[in-house]
Each structure stands twice: as C-alpha cells, then as structure tokens.
Design goal:
8 helices; about 5% strand; about 250 residues; mainly alpha
Length: about 250
C-alpha cells in the first residue's frame, strides 16, 4: 500500500510538470506523451524517495495527489511563463512591422499565429530541447522530493507568488527582446514623417514608409534572432533555478 500511494503521489507531481512544461505541453503534442513520460519517470524515481505514511486514507490520498499536481503545475508554469515571452515579443514585432495580418496555422499551438511569431516559437522550442533544459526541469522536480517528500505538501502560497513574479518577468523580457525592432520602426517612422513634411502632397507613407518598415524590420529581426534566442535561453535557465523556490517555501 505504501508503494502504491507513493507511486501515485510521485506520478501526480511529475504529471503536473509535464502538462505545463514548454514544448511537451503544447496543444499539438499528443497528451499520452506526457502521461507515458510521467509513468516512466515515476517508476524510476519512486525507489529513491521517502515513502508516504502507511496510515494514509483514500480521502487523504486524493487530497495529497491534488496538492502534488498543483506543485508540478506551478513548477512547470514558472518555466512556461518565461518561455512564452519570445512569442509575445515576436507578436509585438509583427504588429509594428505591419505583418499582423500574415497569419499562419501553427500545428504545435493548434492556432493561428503570425509568421514571425511562429518562427521564433519553433526556434525557441528547438533551443529548449537541444540545450537540455527539459532535462534540467525534470531534474529540479526530482530533487524537490528530497525537500518536500510525496504527500507532505502543506501550502502553495509561496509557489503562487513565484509564478506571479515569473509572469511579470515574462512581460518585461518580451519588451526587452522586441526593443531593437521597436526602436528601428520608430526611427523609420520619424524619417518618413520628416519626408511627409518636406513633400506633403506626395503619398510617401504608403509608398515608401511601409516598405521601409517591412524591409528594415525583417533584416534586423534576422540579424538579432540568434541574440534573442541566447537571451531567451539564459532567462529559461534562470527560471529553472526558480522552480526549486516553489517547494522551498512549503
């Protein structure tokens, strides 16, 4: 009975992580992938964690599993919030460059998304998997069983605050990532405004301005994309370290 209860609790925490961790939790990824990964990892982790108390009733087990699921969700959402910053930044850049109407279907998100945002999200997903950040996330969660054993979750207040901070940081990161393109578009618009004043009878904005914004924005985005991905990767790595703080305050 202790083994079964501990396995269920470990599975619950791992499942919460898998259903919120970037890439694996995307709508286009089959849900049974997250379930199978959680089951396999649970079998590997259970022998190395402290087993739950033997007098755990069915009702207490259900409540404990709910707490474990929320812990996993919070830990995965901390990273997921930062991961979404690059899509937000790309959407901002798309709107400013005049590509807001160029929508494509993203099979991973199962939704319409701008071409630039889709490209940035795909590249960020490849960097996330290629740099092994998904393994770091799993490792942090496995280590959390040493801090808070299965069934010993008592409060989620500290984890909720960390998630709110991660959301705020994600918005700030999105603005910083899109900053160079926003500044360039502003400078181009100022240049076009000066031309309009010099030749008010010419339709310079639609004939020259939009083309300059599109071309200059695309060139800068292509040049800056490697640096954007590097900054985004560093932010994700920092977010994985904050995952441990979710259980640190419990």
């Amino acid at each position: 009975m202790e083994l079964i209860a501990t396995t269920l609790l470990v599975f619950a925490r791992l499942g919460g992580l898998m259903f919120t961790m970037p890439v694996i939790s995307m709508a286009g990824v089959p849900k049974h992938v997250a379930v199978l990964l959680s089951m396999i990892l649970s079998i590997l982790v259970v022998p190395h964690v402290q087993w739950t108390q033997p007098d755990l009733t069915l009702g207490l087990l259900a409540l404990s599993m709910a707490g474990e699921i929320f812990v996993g969700i919070l830990m995965g959402a901390v990273v997921g919030a930062i991961f979404g910053a690059i899509s937000m930044a790309a959407d901002i850049m798309s709107m400013q460059m005049g590509f807001a109407m160029a929508m494509l279907f993203n099979p991973l998100q199962k939704s319409q998304q701008g071409a630039i945002a889709g490209l940035a999200a795909w590249c960020a997903g490849l960097v996330f998997l290629g740099s092994g950040l998904h393994l770091i996330c799993i490792g942090v969660l496995v280590d959390s069983f040493q801090v808070v054993p299965p069934g010993e979750v008592h409060s989620l207040v500290a984890g909720s605050q960390i998630l709110m901070d991660a959301v705020a940081e994600s918005i700030s990161l999105a603005l910083r990532l899109s900053g160079p393109v926003l500044i360039l578009v502003w400078l181009v618009n100022v240049f076009v405004a000066v031309l309009v004043k010099l030749a008010p009878k010419m339709n310079i904005y639609f004939s020259v301005g939009m083309i300059l914004v599109n071309v200059a924005g695309l060139v800068l985005f292509a040049v800056a994309l490697p640096f954007i991905l590097t900054i985004h990767e560093d932010a994700l790595l920092d977010a994985t370290s904050k995952m441990a703080l979710v259980v640190g305050g419990m």
